[in-house]
Write a structure and sequence with these properties.
113 residues, CheY-like_superfamily
Length: 113
């Protein structure tokens, strides 16, 4: 078994929470997604271009943190990723009150990540 530094594991767990948060947001808007690529592709169906760009940025940030980071990500990496999640949520919120209500009552958005 390969030893993984504890700090790195905590960051990966946080990245998983990011993925779950965005998956739940998009799922509440009627989209089933499994991978970061699915997230970006699915967002195109329901969101404006700036929101889609934010989903693609988040996918790249998570991929980099999990697979390509030559160092342990710092707190700034995590803060930038969560700021991107906030951008995605704001973009989805612009879809109108019916879509927001439907998303808010979807079972995938009612449970904690």
């Amino acid at each position: 078994m390969t030893h993984v530094p504890t700090r790195r594991v905590l960051v990966v767990e946080d990245d998983e929470n990011l993925r779950v948060a965005v998956t739940a947001e998009l799922g509440g808007n009627g989209l089933a997604v499994d991978t970061a690529g699915d997230l970006a592709d699915a967002a195109e169906a329901v969101a404006a271009p700036p929101t889609v760009a934010a989903v693609r940025a988040l996918a790249a940030q998570v991929d980099h943190a999990v697979w390509a980071a030559p160092r342990d990500p710092d707190g700034g990496d995590t803060a930038r990723a969560w700021a991107t999640v906030d951008t995605i949520r704001r973009g989805l919120a612009r879809r109108g009150w019916r879509a927001r209500l439907r998303a808010a009552l979807d079972h995938r958005t009612l449970r904690a990540p």
